[in-house]
## 1
Amino acid sequence: MCKITGFTACSLQPTSGAQGEYAGLLTIRAYHLDRGDQHRVITLIPSSGHGTNPASAVMVGMDVIVVKCDEQGNIDIEDWCSKAEQYKDTLSALMVTYPSTHGVFEEGIREICEIIHQNWRSCVHGWSQHECPGRIDFAGSDRADVCHLNFHKTFAIPHGGGGPGMGPICVNDKLAPYLPGHPVATTGGSKGVYAVSAAPWGSASILLISYAYIKMLGKIEWQMRPAMLSECQLYESKTEKSYKILYTGKMDGQHMR
Ligand SMILES: *Cc1c(COP(=O)(O)O)cnc(C)c1O
């Protein structure tokens, strides 16, 4: 996972998307606490965020501020900047789902991450969430500090009907020491937060599915954009006329390049 995402360390402990979010935010919270920044509790979440986002943030003791979206479903960068400025002294994290829960690839994602890192030197929480295979290039420790991936979305594990999922988190150097530990098995970072799951490595046996899937696709396929592009085109040509789609982002495929 570290190789695919470009991050330093990974915790396979979270067994669902909601648990992955929670684990990621716990590491961020631990990082701030370790630096004496206990007042950093504000988490910015775009209105397009997954419903679990605010719930996870509140569960780790953070306060949620919602950021607007534009008409195409992208984060409203102006609103984002003004909220980040307003809360800069207490800002803890930004949670972004990418592509968003509406399926929109945030065009301004790099700008958004740069703004938070340059101006507020705070933690960005990048949710690189992929509902379909492909595009992992937003992930990368130079942009986000945490990357949460649902294996039951991107890496072929079935999670329907309440079956076991996997929501691992990958982190950069900054957050690696805080990855969740476990009271029985040795795992996680040197200053690891408490376990988020009863099993130290989550539902480890189902990882074989994702492992086989990654092996079969191979490295090159993970940068496979044609499939994503044709998906966009299919969307554009077939579904748009028959269904009302709330947000589509730009439909010319430009953002895919
Ligand atoms: C799908 C999704 C979830 C929910 O995943 P569960 O495994 O059902 O908990 C949580 N967060 C994000 C960002 C998601 O895309």
## 2
Amino acid sequence: MKNVIGARCTVCGNLIEATPNITVCPRCGGIMDIEYDYDYIRAKLTPYDLMDCDDFSMWRYKAFLPVEGKSTLPKLRVGWSPFYKAGRLGEVLGLKNLYIKDDGINPTSSLKDRASAMAVVKAEEAGKSIIACSSTGNAASSLAGNAAAAGLKTYIFVPERAPKGKVAQLMMFGATVISVQGSYEDTFRLSAEAIDRWGWYNRNAAINPYLMEGKKTVALEIAEQLHFQMPDYVAISVGDGCTIAGVWKGFKDLYAAGFINKLPRLIAVQASGCCPINTAAAAHTTEWTPQPENTLADSIAVGVPRNPLKAIRAIEESNGIPVNVSDEEILAAMRLLGRTSGVFAEPAGATGTAGVKKAVEMGLIDKDASVVTVVTGNGLKDVNNAIKAAGEPISIPGEMDRLLEAFEKKGDPHR
Ligand SMILES: *Cc1c(COP(=O)(O)O)cnc(C)c1O
């Protein structure tokens, strides 16, 4: 990998060779970060080259990614998700320049596919045929899907509370699924022990620094889809903190390679019932405290985050805004995205948008500001909460009289 200098520890600064199966710092146990040679990247790729690139997936940014020249890239099409100017949603929120990046449109319907695709490449480079992870749900289903497409086996640990849609995906993709009767923390601990014992490739969030490199491609796409004219803000929901850290890394990479001349501010959105990262970020400290996992947004119900340092630094460095939203605000944002934009988000997928709404209401962002809200996961993943947000349909026998009656009761103006 001529574009990669090595992996540097985010805690002690130790620089090591970026071999395929590195995890945490061998010296202090800190989380590693992949470091690039930006002069090399600049010579290899320019914004003009991208205009001619016919690879409409995350791999169009190979020059910015830690993949060996000879590695076979996955066949599932991950990335290059839709990017919309959200006029009607913007009107409702009072923003003139609002955009939606819909990452629910990925092969397994979440942004996690960007990390899992990278994990599959790295596992193959490392000569491993089994990959394992623990996850609140989406990392699991995306790993299972991306591994299935590459012919690799998976062992997946999920907490018992994982929504049915996500577990159904896991089973469909042929994963061996261990449903742990306990919290996400218990699940993570058991998976770590099993990975150690059997030597599987480790796709656990944060621990494996390559995953974030996959996730950063969402930022590269946002930049390119805006013709490298950067927005003022990018809003993203936060659980473990890998996604927001990845988004920030992506923008910083583009800046360092001279693709963009401005960095956006991050709007970090957590659920008020579980917001350890935002609590620390708001106090401008990296000292965080565990919290109960008290939100219906299962993908971000992370009381003990795995990547707090990178996430808090990303918020701090970007002069970001931490915003917490209630479950009711999340459900309302799901309805809003659906009704104004035809975008169906799972609770954590709509949390970024709920945060934008709240930040405008609190006067934290200007109405003229340009804002990108990232929808991180699709609503079909969690049908129970979708019904909770949107309500039940009109249920009647198949007779016109009953229909008239029902419309009368509802006062429907469209009939
Ligand atoms: C994982 C996930 C997040 C948060 O990502 P972290 O890296 O855990 O912060 C947000 N939304 C969805 C849908 C997710 O699956």
## 3
Amino acid sequence: MADFPLIFEKSKPGRLGAPPPVCDVPGQPLTDLLPRDLIREPAALPELGELEVVRHFTNLSHRNYGIDTGFYPLGSCTMKYNPRVNEAAAANPSFTGVHPMQPVETVQGCLRVVHDLQSWMAEITGFSTATMQPPAGASGELLCLLMIRAYHESRGEAEQRRVVLVPDSAHGTNPASAARAGYRVESIKTDAKGLTDIEDLKAHLSENVAAMMLTNPSTLGLFEENIVEVCELLHSCGAQVFCDGANMNAMVGVTRPGDHGFDCMHLNLHKTFSTPHGGGGPGCGCVAVKAHLEPFLPTPVVAKEGDAYKLEWDRESSVGRVHAFFGNFLMNVRAWAYVRAYGREGLPEIARHAVLNANYVQARIRSEFPPAFDRHCMHECVLTAKPLREFGVRALDVSKRLIDYGFHPPTNYFPLIVPEALMIEPTETETKETLDAFCDVMLRIAQEAKENPEVLHSAPHNATVGRLDEAYAAKTLDVKWNRNPGSPVEVG
Ligand SMILES: *Cc1c(COP(=O)(O)O)cnc(C)c1O
């Protein structure tokens, strides 16, 4: 970006931010301490004054778009606002200053946070207990499949059960986790109402099925009305049912996957329980299980004995660990504070508002962007920009144009089974004014598509960069400063 020099390009040799204190102990040459081949050249760091550094990074941050700057309706991601008070709790030195290998007597408060959450998450989801160890949703999925495999092994059926069923609307992590756990994935169709196709499911059922992975509410933003029947069908052939609970924001305190018949599930604290997310983490893909899967939980298990909390490392049937120690512990602190703040009355209100907001958006713009399946939605609506195809306009053009109006685009082209998909998740934390402003802009863009499609094709017009060739950008990464422009940059 020619208009925005890199910090290296602003560097002037000898310029200092703050003078380091004079060394008051005798110096020693590095060569006395380390073998020569381990000593590196001094790092080529930029040299600048403090104010230049402050301005550089402040200006860079203004080029970013985040939930703190505007509406962020990225479907399937639950980009809701996370109360700052929970950040304050997580920043408390009593939590940030501990070490995972401290004697348990000295970290009883931290273990209580984990233990409380294990039981609250189990209560919220309708399971018997939970583990906070997995650091992401995908990791929670993998853990559930490993536990399901261990369960089948304990019954002598692991050899025969090689198949995991995944709906064709599923998030990409589902088939990926199943393949990673060594299973063969078979895809289950979606029916005309947007639900699991029961006939297709029946056709896939056999003694070879280990599990089904089902998202509820589905990635189509719809509640699986057949869920009890689906679980019964799988259990009748000895298979287990995993719930992808990334969409739990629609149901917290209202209904419980454990009651629907699932055997285990994951939750994303970084979506539903007040942890900011993006940029790959850190997160927490908490996993809740029914009693028959408890022996397989990862260790250490945080348990309570009398008034004291302890760690159980020796569990014969445990699948082992999916992350060091207790996972990303500070996510637990945020979630603990959040659950305590909202409580039994407040949590279901959150879910109801998330659902109301999504239905409001769907109703307001459906004349131009009809729902993929014409039903009330849950916490997100999956609409289609297909009617604009006749004007040569695609969902991507609509999204790029939204940037011109100051909105983050919704999720595009997912779920894969919906042509020209626009997946909008407004979340419960937005006001009616914000939702209206977004809907007004969407309707205006539809109008522009009909009258002046070119303005959409060339959007965005006011962003730092226009349309990138994403495949080219991903394949020919150029992310390193090149001291000698013109010569190729090494990647790797
Ligand atoms: C976000 C999401 C996941 C994966 O969660 P990560 O924490 O990103 O690994 C899985 N399934 C669904 C439906 C999701 O929305």
## 4
Amino acid sequence: MNNPCIPLGTLDEFVARHIGPREDDIEAMLALTGHDSLDALVDSVIPASIKGSSVLTLTPGQGEAEALAALKGIAANNQLYSNHIGQGYYPCHTPAPILRNLLENPAWYTAYTPYQPEISQGRLEALLNFQTLVSDLTGMEIANASLLDEATAAAEAMTFCKRLAKNKAPAFFASRDCHPQTLDVLLTRARPLGIEVVIGDEAALEGQPLDGYFGLLLQYPASTGAIVDHRALVQRAHAAGALVSVSADLLALTLLAPPGEWGADVVIGSAQRFGVPLGFGGPHAAYFATRDVFKRDMPGRLVGVSIDRFGKPALRLAMQTREQHIRREKATSNICTAQVLLANIASMYAVYHGPQGLAQIARRVHRLTAILVQGLRQLGHHVEQAHFFDTVSVVTARPLADVLAAANAARLNLRLIDDLRVGVALDETCEQGSVEALWQVFAGAGQALPDFAALAADGADCLPSVLLRDTHYLQHPVFNRYHSETELMRYLRRLGDKDLALDRSMIALGSCTMKLNAASEMTPITWPEFGALHPFAPASQSLGYRQLTDELEAMLCAATGYDAMSLQPNAGSQGEYAGLLAIRAYHASRGEAGRDVCLIPSSAHGTNPATAQMAGMQVVVVNCDERGNVDVADLQHKAEQHKARLAALMITYPSTHGVFEDVITRICDIIHACGGQVYLDGANMNAMVGLCAPGKFGGDVSHLNLHKTFCIPHGGGGPGVGPIGVKAHLAPFLPGHGHLPKQQGAVSAAPYGSASILPITWMYIRMMGGAGLKRASQLAILSANYIARRLEEHYPVLYTGENGLVAHECILDLRPLKDSSGIGVEDVAKRLIDFGFHAPTMSFPVAGTLMVEPTESESKEELDRFCAAMICIREEIRAVENGTLDALDNPLKNAPHTASELVGEWAHSYSRELAVYPLADLRESKYWPPVGRVDNVYGDRNLACACPPLSSYQDA
Ligand SMILES: *Cc1c(COP(=O)(O)O)cnc(C)c1O
């Protein structure tokens, strides 16, 4: 009984929760690959030249409860002040039903980007609502499905104007009344493209010629609060052939004449205050809206209405040919992962409140601000704006330092604009007490406070009468029927039920690493200690965040072998951009500013060439051989040919083909010998953590996708975090920010980008420990090789390493089947839906193939279920090949099959059973797609990107 040797142990060891296969499963899987241990398998997968380069300490992880407690301790070092800083970030209420049924609901947050529309109708509808919300409020004809943040959206607007304006002058005018962080990112993005940004006072443009500008950026209301009538300026800009972009506040637009009504060509901004917490700067959805004539040039993803094969309305991502993954070095934007989850929160906020509710919130904020201002004037302060919405700037009657000290004592943040002025912004969460607390801060000793009731009775508002909104918005029924909680809850459930996310089955998306997003990792992101911090509050209030980011940077350095890390980029694409800028700045610091050639293998992800383009580099494509590997002779030749101008090589490792190329160290040596730097795209880091380290085997800089390898959920297409790790020599060139000590320009609006989701990765690493992380990589490799072995007799596995093994993903070649059966990769992808599976990555990096990445989180049972589906599909293809199934009327060509199709007249040459229950266990649990196969061409020809009238659904 009393054996003293029984160790206490941890009760809730996380590693075994995160990793799917059990011990005996692992043995069986290893046996199939012909190895007797994980170490032996990995030993044959990882090339000798990089083996052992990992510097990760193999410590054990912490239990879930223990790690959460540790993080709670860190969070306690953040101070919760009342925030009146404004400047693009406003406290708001996340409606509880949206918090619980959307933000905290895996049906929403574990979904992938909606590239497979038939299993994505729910989130596509939510995004269509977002687009409708934005185009209605801005008064524009078309809006996209989100961008990364307001500042990068402004940068996209700048380059958009440059492409489309008649005026080909080199300069862009940006109002000094834009948010400072917007101007900062604008300058960063303009420099490599040779765009001159002129920051100035638009009032001073009066009477000045505008021919020198291809475009303008104005802010409405201004960053410090004023509402200015820009109509005459817009007319003059148009007369000069320039385009006008406006950064606008969506809440203010419920009361003010929208920019679309006074001539703006582009309207951008943030949807944060529609229910998304401050989160120390992000993630938040930015928006981008424009005129119909410019729609084909819009950056980012666009949801459009099309029809399915029964003619029923169905949604899908429209005009994908505009996107970076197609246009590559001709791309005009590199945005890939966006902010879908946050856009969906904002859209549901509008669905829940409706047009009257939103206007009511806006009017209340404005009234409180007007009362506040009257009181401040009574107290003798000079409020600069005659017309404002919710923000003003104040020249204080008593010393500014005294006011700031009083604000600090009252635990309240104001915006310090300059030596003379403070800014004050109110928001949805403010009430009478907030206004009185502010008066108290501004009042001198012994000064009587204004009488709130008396001022409130007075009732005047301070919106300019010439710019009052007199047009309707959000008239569509979707914004007018879900105002009770019961109705909203069911709407969210209905939409969630239409989609296939990780809460239903595995999503084996090569390159995208759809692994477990554990509940314990997700829990902290909605703690107020992380959610309620303003990114520009004094640093003394965010010591908890500082500890979190310091520790996370150290963890990620240990995982990659790099010396320094920047957490600022809010997607992988932004990390690529920050990395290439660091390389350029490094070369320039050595007097080699002329180095501007970027070598990129033909197999690269589309964001690589798009990013190089944005960084002002010239892309030179390097060939790949028939095995999918980089053609080293071609690489050597091109590196030497461009030796004098070689800036960088961008290379993905393990390769986009899912193989550890053993020549990687030689490739890095060739580039270094020619004076270039190696950008190692770290999207495939899930094959390497704990096994080998890019920072030690030749990389100078890499981005990581925390939303792939490090457990941040995909959110249906964002948020993401794309930190970059660099070797020491590049550390001085990491992104800076007005609120960071570093000197370089910013790439994101907030100093730590999408700060509030960093706890997810911190929790993951802390709970796994170095040992668990290494095991995760080993299991990811084992699972991919297991699938490759199980499926290779049915589908050829396209690329393997020297030893016949793959890394953490494998490519199934379906091209030969097209000739023998007419069945293509898309048919197989759609048929998988009938089996309840999301398709693997289609036609990347090789057209006509499927790239399967199972990840370590899937159990052997789930892997087997997937293999069974793929094998069953292969049998169906064989039946088409030998004529047992009709060449055109077969379950593959007609997939996916909907429930309503079954109850109609059955006109097919195969049975209903074969259509929907091809495997017996589907009778136990079945996913029913809400629409049949979606017609992309129809939707692109008849482009509609806002909520269609309800009649169009009823007619069909
Ligand atoms: C996902 C991915 C990217 C882009 O990352 P985002 O976070 O979507 O911007 C870049 N390269 C590769 C290889 C990828 O798989």
